[in-house]
């Protein structure tokens, strides 16, 4: 897919809304459509909107195999993460004040944890292994008597590596500790069965799965029951967990997107795997390229590559007709190398050299072929410009150089 | 990324036409060549600047310059901008170049000012290296 001749390979950042989703959303906005307030109980405008919201809720529940009553609408995965983490920690604060998470979580998990630290909670940030995976053993080892919550992401947004949340859930359930999973990158990519897994809370986003921005959901398990303190008060919507008039069109969009995801996950996966394989084969032909993450344990829609001796930001600027990101979009304005790659123990210079390519439903053969052509060329040109490449060709070991750092 | 149009232009021109924009290297052992290298890979930028000079009256004049830069688009554009300023200048004039001149020429945003500082430091070092050889 491309617009204004720019190739879009940043699906892990956001996806376009599937046109089928957009047309469904349009039915819930105008005077001719079902624009009612789903909370209006006294007339058919309200009833119709409520019906649509509940249908959407069952589509979300269906994709992850849970009860629709366990789905709480939010403004997105960030709010869902906040609600889960702060909500559970604050509700159960008399039970314990220790939370376990990892160093490679999204900021939507890390920042609420930081906030809780300011409120007196204690947080353990687990290190991933060098492939970017948090092991169930590491979680188990960090548990204390005061632990009330574990929050570990399902699929890492920068690397695409997959954590075994099923096994981690067994550990936390065994200890009677709540387990929250940020699954923003998972829906439509891998199958999720909440009936089989001991996950207590799970965050979802619509806009990573061809739905609209501005809507997400939090799964809150009913048995065993999870309770949480609401963040937003004002009307007691969503069984008191999230007040505020429901955004019918957004919710319908998320429902439709998730319905399509369960229908088309396999086809999407097949197509994207093909692109991933082709991309990987070609990229490996370039010298001194490192794949970040675990090729044997990751989703094919994300491929994170470090091009040694080339700085990531300049590479992105050189790839001006291709939309990709270095690290996560939230951090690419800062000068810090990716904290996720640092947590894996990657050298800073390789962390500075990383690019995330992410493919999706609307990626075409041409997108992939053209990107590969341009990529090889730009890496070559930037290396011609790089004093590090020159030193490397001269046989100088860069680790032995005394740098004149600023 | 807050890049000015000037940074983008400078970066692209340098990338697409490296020779014309003085990308390359001189033999660092040449007595007429001074080399400066500043920055560190772990910080995300390294600049290498080389000047080729010849005596003129009681001073020396920069006849030619070569550079290579590892870094973000602004770092590459800053080096390229500096190189243009240097040719034909005496060493005294070159020493007087301040990073703000690069900041202004490229309209660098505050977050990228360190790129211009790095460029200023690279010319200092190159001149020191050259003077030590004389």
UniProtKB/TrEMBL annotation, chain B:
Write one Pfam family the protein is assigned to.
NifU_N
One GO term of the biological process aspect? iron-sulfur cluster assembly
Query: Which stretches make up the NIF system FeS cluster assembly NifU N-terminal domain?
Result: 3-134
The cross-references to InterPro entries, in alphabetical order and at most eight, read:
NIF_FeS_clus_asmbl_NifU_N (IPR002871)
What are the coiled-coil residue ranges?
none
Instruction: Output the Gene Ontology terms for molecular function.
Output: iron ion binding; iron-sulfur cluster binding
Q: Which Gene3D superfamilies match?
A: 3.90.1010.10
Name this protein carries in UniProt: Iron-binding protein
Q: Which organism is it from?
A: SAR86 cluster bacterium
């Amino acid at each position: 897919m491309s617009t204004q001749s720019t190739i879009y390979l940043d699906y892990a950042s956001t996806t376009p809304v599937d046109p089928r989703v957009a047309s469904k959303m349009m039915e819930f906005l105008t005077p001719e459509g079902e624009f009612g307030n789903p909370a209006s109980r006294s007339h058919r405008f309200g009833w119709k909107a409520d019906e649509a919201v509940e249908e959407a809720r069952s589509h979300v529940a269906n994709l992850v195999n849970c009860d629709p009553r366990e789905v709480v609408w939010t403004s997105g995965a960030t709010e869902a993460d906040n609600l889960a983490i702060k909500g559970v920690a604050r509700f159960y604060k008399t039970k314990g004040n220790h939370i376990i998470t990892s160093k490679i979580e999204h900021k939507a998990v890390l920042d609420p944890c930081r906030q809780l630290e300011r409120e007196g909670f204690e947080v353990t940030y687990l290190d991933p292994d060098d492939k970017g995976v948090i092991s169930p053993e590491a979680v188990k080892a960090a548990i204390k008597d005061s632990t009330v919550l574990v929050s570990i992401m399902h699929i890492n947004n920068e690397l695409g590596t997959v954590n075994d949340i099923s096994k981690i859930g067994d550990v936390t359930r065994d200890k009677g500790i709540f387990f929250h999973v940020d699954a923003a990158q998972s829906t439509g990519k891998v199958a999720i069965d909440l009936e089989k897994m001991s996950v207590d809370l799970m965050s979802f986003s619509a806009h990573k799965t061809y739905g609209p921005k501005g809507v997400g959901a939090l799964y809150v398990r009913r048995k065993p029951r999870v309770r949480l303190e609401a963040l937003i008060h004002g009307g007691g919507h969503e069984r008191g967990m999230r007040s505020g008039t429901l955004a019918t069109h957004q919710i319908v969009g998320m429902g439709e997107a998730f319905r399509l995801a369960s229908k088309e996950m396999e086809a999407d996966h097949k197509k994207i795997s093909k692109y991933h394989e082709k991309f990987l084969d070609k990229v490996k032909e370039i010298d001194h390229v490192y794949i970040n993450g675990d090729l044997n344990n990751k989703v094919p829609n994300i491929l994170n590559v470090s091009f040694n001796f080339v700085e990531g930001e300049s590479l992105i600027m050189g790839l001006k007709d291709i939309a990709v990101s270095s690290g996560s979009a939230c951090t690419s304005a800062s000068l810090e190398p990716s904290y996720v790659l640092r947590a894996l123990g990657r050298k800073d210079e390789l962390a500075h050299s990383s690019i995330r390519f992410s493919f999706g439903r609307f990626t075409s053969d041409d997108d992939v072929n053209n990107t590969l052509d341009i990529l090889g060329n730009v890496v070559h040109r930037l290396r011609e410009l790089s004093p590090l490449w020159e030193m490397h060709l001269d046989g100088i070991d860069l680790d032995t150089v005394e740098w004149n750092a600023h | 990324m807050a890049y000015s149009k000037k940074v983008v232009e400078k970066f692209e021109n340098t990338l697409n036409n490296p020779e014309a924009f003085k990308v390359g290297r001189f033999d660092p052992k040449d007595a007429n060549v001074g080399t400066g290298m500043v920055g560190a890979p772990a910080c995300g930028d390294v600049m290498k600047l080389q000047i080729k000079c010849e005596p003129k009256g009681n001073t020396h004049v920069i006849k030619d310059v070569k550079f290579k830069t590892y870094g973000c688009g602004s770092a590459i554009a800053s080096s390229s901008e500096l190189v243009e300023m240097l040719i034909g200048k005496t060493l005294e004039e070159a020493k007087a170049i301040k990073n703000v001149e690069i900041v202004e020429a490229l309209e660098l945003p505050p977050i990228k000012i360190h790129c211009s500082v790095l460029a200023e430091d690279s010319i200092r070092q190159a001149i020191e290296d050259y003077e030590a050889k004389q």
